[in-house]
Amino acid sequence: MKKPFTLICTCAAIALALPGFSQAPAMLQPVPMPTASPDTSPGAILKKSNGVIKKKLPDDLPQEKLLFVKYQPLTLPPEGPKGWGIQRRNYFLKKKHNDVFPEANKQLQEAAKLYPYAHRITTLDSVAYYQEHGYKYMLMQSSFNSVADGTFQGTTGNTIGTGSPGGSTRVMTTTSVDLYVQELNSGDKYVFDDFSETFIYYYKGQVGMLLKKVDKQFNAKKKS
User: Fold this and answer.
1) CB contact burial 173-210 (16+ within 10 A = b; e otherwise)
2) 148: CB partners within 8 A, 6+ apart
3) Which range marks the domain in which residue 108 is found?
4) For 4, 158, 168, 191, which has the most beta carbons within 10 A of its beta carbon?
């Protein structure tokens, strides 16, 4: 800060002007600026990415602890917006989320029991805490927050007409979602599979994909 620095310099100048004061003035050391704490908010954890490794799991996964992240309810206003715009669509997507996430979490609870290594089920806002207590990885998919942040696309259909009778074609488009194990410290993502965004709440299938990859890569399978 400028004020304390000026005061110290003034005092030093007065001392140097006194008779018999012959000691060389000491160099003032710069005060180190405080380092910013890393952003460990849920949104930052999902966006953190250092590198992407395809078609494999981390080599040390059997020796490390893994987090499974369950869904939480989303806050909704008492009434939805009027009209048929994007805000109303997002409102009903969030409302649907609140209807289905308990079943998704129940699926996760059951499916995670078959994971053969050390693990814990937690919420996204608790990941940073467990990271500090020895958890190195988490299972995640790239559309986990898509309903909350309004980016969910799912499967959409468009009719393409040719101008002739019976010449229209219905084209269905689905958004692909990456399924990966993320290293919490570096942000590295080990993308080992993908699925349609329509199935983001189908935890039984997602964990099943992980178990299949674990069995293939490490020849490990937990007895049910």
Assistant:
1) eebebbbbbbbbeebbbbbbbebebebbbbbeebbebb
2) 74, 94, 97
3) 50-218
4) 191
Answer yes or no: is 6 within a domain: no
Q: Which amino acid is at 174?
A: T
Helix segments in the chain, DSSP class H = 2-17, 42-47, 86-112, 127-132, 203-218
Q: How many domains does the chain divide into?
A: 1
Distance, CA of 215 to CA of 116 (rounded, Å)? 9
Answer yes or no: is 136 within a domain: yes
Neighbours of 151 (CB within 10 A): 12
Q: Whose structure tokens read 């009209």? A: 83
**Integer distance in angstroms from the first to the last C-alpha of the chain?**
63
Query: Which residue type sits at 34?
Result: P
Residue 7 included in any domain: no
pLDDT 10s digits, 17-47:
334 434 444 444 555 554 445 555 655 666 6
- Do 188 and 209 meet the contact criterion of CB atoms below 8 Å apart? no
Is residue 208 included in any domain, yes or no? yes
